[in-house]
Amino acid sequence: MKIPSYKRCADSPIQQFVPPNRVRVPIDKMAPIIKQGDHIEAGMLIARTDSDARWQFRRHSPLTGEVVAIEEKPNNGNEYQEIIIEGNAPTTARPNKHNVSNSFSSDDIVSAAREAGIVGMGGGMFPTYAKLSPNVPIDCVIINASECEPYMTCDHRVLLEHRDEVESGLELAKQAVGAKRGEIANDKHGYPFGYENFIIRNLLGREVPSGGLPKDVGVVVINVQTAQTLHHAVYGQQPLTQRVVTVDGDAVSKPGNYLIPIGTEIGYVLEQCATDLESTALLLGGGPMMGKPVDLDSPVTPGMGAILALTATQIQKANDGPCVRCGECLEACPLGLPAGLLSEQPDESVLECIECGICQYACVGSRPLLDKLREAKAQIRKAKAGSV
What we know:
The chain is of the alpha/beta class and 388 residues long. It has 11 helices and 16 strands. The chain folds into 4 domains: 21-88, CATH 2.40.50.100; 101-236, NADH-ubiquinone oxidoreductase 51kDa subunit (Rossmann fold); 241-314, Ubiquitin-like (UB roll); 328-386, no CATH class. The protein has helices spanning 106-115, 128-131, 154-161, 163-177, 196-204, 224-236, 266-272, 328-332, 339-344, 358-362, 369-386; strands at 14-15, 22-26, 31-32, 39-40, 45-48, 58-60, 64-75, 78-88, 140-144, 181-185, 219-223, 242-248, 256-261, 282-285, 292-293, 306-310. The strands form 4 sheets. Strands 1-13-12-16-14-15 form a 6-stranded mixed sheet. It is globular, with a radius of gyration of 21 Å. The mean pLDDT is 92.
């Protein structure tokens, strides 16, 4: 099934608007190490996981200013915290590369990634330092530059405008894992074939096993902006405090690719992009296939590659009716899963779902299949965890 690309921002250079004087920095899985009233500097560590946590996360302030509040926020039945900071963004540019990559050890690179708080910026937000210390032999590192989801062009612009930094990040990642081969992959098969397992199959002819990870076949896959951020962490000691985001949708008068501080409220972004909120029928963080609804006060996160303000003519209204057993979802699914049946009678095969959303796009009944499959996966994982 061919999904329209809607890449109208592909020719829009990366821009910056007036930085916000207030951010809501999300710290899911972390605890704040500052308190209300503290003065902080841009780039300062403000939250981290406990030292004995399985995965180590860090979060840094994008602003110089004051911590005005630390708030609890709901998130799919759980809660996370946001650190609200008021102040000013730094005016200094990122430092230029000042050394050669072979002067760093593997431990240096992994440590820099961990302390900079780098996570997967393609959406997964898994800590990058963990990918760079896989404890199994790795012979290839792939930069996934496919960006196949409709509307999203942020990685395309980063690669076009800052290819040297991305390539530097690739070399650092290769060095960290001891790989000889590195590739920048830009799969042209369209959505959803930018998924990392499909990239590995098409580029290397290797099949990631069911329930496995790319490292199981000797591969590490990282995102374009993750690689760029790794470059800045190693060479400039710069933490992850900003990212490029595609802002688009028919309600947006000034669509484009914008460099935005982490924690910027989406409402502020849309205001800077002259968005008609009255005509906005759906506001998404991420692309139209895998993105999730957000509010105006939701923050930009490290994994948020797009903000879409879609009008009523751009969206397909969900209809929570019964499956008519037409088989369109089965035919469209790149893994051959019967999404309609699994949404009603889930079994463990639903865990194979990559949540690409193409089943929902194909559904003749406009059923909210992606939401149902996500819920089914969560329930099965919870049940399995409870039985251990």
